[in-house]
Design goal:
This protein is an alpha+beta fold. The chain has helices spanning about 1-10, 15-20, 30-50, 60-75, 140-160, 165-180, 215-220, and strands spanning about 80-85, 115-125, 125, 130-135, 185, 195, 230, 240-245, 250, 255, 260-265, 270. Helix 3 crosses helix 4.
């Protein structure tokens, strides 16, 4: 992972990477918003259907392949990133030390595992990126964690309005998570992102790249100004536009997250779907 971050660090020093390209923070039209919502709802439906049909002993790799194949059957042309799947303590990145460790593994699902399914299909050119957390069997730690995430979700739009910068939003969410007694797992993501911008990206193909992301997915971020695309503790730019927001928390031996699209415009900030997807 250190090699990838080293390369990324050099790329981000290029002048065109540092600022947003024209229109990169544009709020969507009503028609465009409908397209993003359609993509998000399809991704949510498929992840829930796959999650409800899980069987003990299935591997992360098998379920990731199933998610990708099912989404393609439903009309998805390409992916911002292909499916991530994490069982049990891998859902809080236990044992994740190198870049390939994030990828779906041969880990087998067992009773009591809390798990995360994360998919980012592109439907008719509309990107989305969603995270779905659930439990296979019974685990008493799951429901309190999800209840907290639901409460946090309700507070995040106001943070986008009252905080002075995206970096301040990141720090407010980080503080909230720690006060609730959980660990901030999205701090372990590349660039420590709480979220990233969502765009209309016609004919984007996955290609070959790192960490389930194709080269064109990386380019769609870099060419628009990388630091204006990734919401982390250093973000200081304009927040207008669509964001895939993904607070990821960890407890003892497990992690849970949600990821949904948030719209920021002159009227404030709001989730494009009213209720938390569960």
């Amino acid at each position: 992972m250190s090699r990838i971050f080293s390369v990324a660090s050099k790329i981000t020093k290029l002048p065109f990477v540092k600022t947003l390209s024209p229109g990169a923070n544009k709020a969507p039209s009503k028609k465009e918003l409908k397209g993003f919502l359609e993509a998000q709802r399809l991704a949510q439906r498929i992840t829930k259907e796959v999650g409800e049909a899980l069987e003990g002993g299935v591997t992360e790799k098998h379920v990731a392949a199933q998610l990708n194949a099912t989404l393609k059957k439903e009309g998805v042309e390409s992916f911002f990133h292909k499916a991530f799947v994490w069982w049990g303590d891998r859902s809080r990145f236990t044992g994740v030390k190198h870049t390939p460790d994030f990828l779906p593994s041969n880990r087998k699902l067992k009773n009591g595992d809390i798990y995360i399914l994360d998919v980012a299909p592109i439907l008719k050119g509309y990107q989305c990126d969603i995270g779905y957390s659930n439990v296979f069997g019974q685990n008493a730690r799951y429901e309190p964690a999800m209840t907290y995430l639901e409460d946090l979700r309700g507070r995040i739009p106001e943070m986008f309005v009252t905080c002075r910068s995206g970096g301040e939003v990141w720090r407010a969410v980080d503080s909230d998570i720690k006060k609730a007694g959980y660990d901030n797992i999205h701090n372990l993501y590349p660039f420590s992102v709480l979220g990233h911008r969502i765009h209309f990206q016609k004919n984007e193909q996955p290609g070959v790249g790192f960490l389930n992301f194709g080269w064109q997915s990386y380019w769609s971020l870099i060419s628009r100004g990388l630091f204006g695309q990734l919401l982390n503790q250093n973000f200081a730019g304009d927040l207008t536009g669509l964001w895939a927001i993904e607070p990821h928390i960890g407890g003892n031996g497990f992690g849970v997250k949600f990821e949904e699209i948030l719209l920021v415009d002159e009227n404030g900030a709001r989730w494009i779907e009213k209720d938390l997807f569960r």
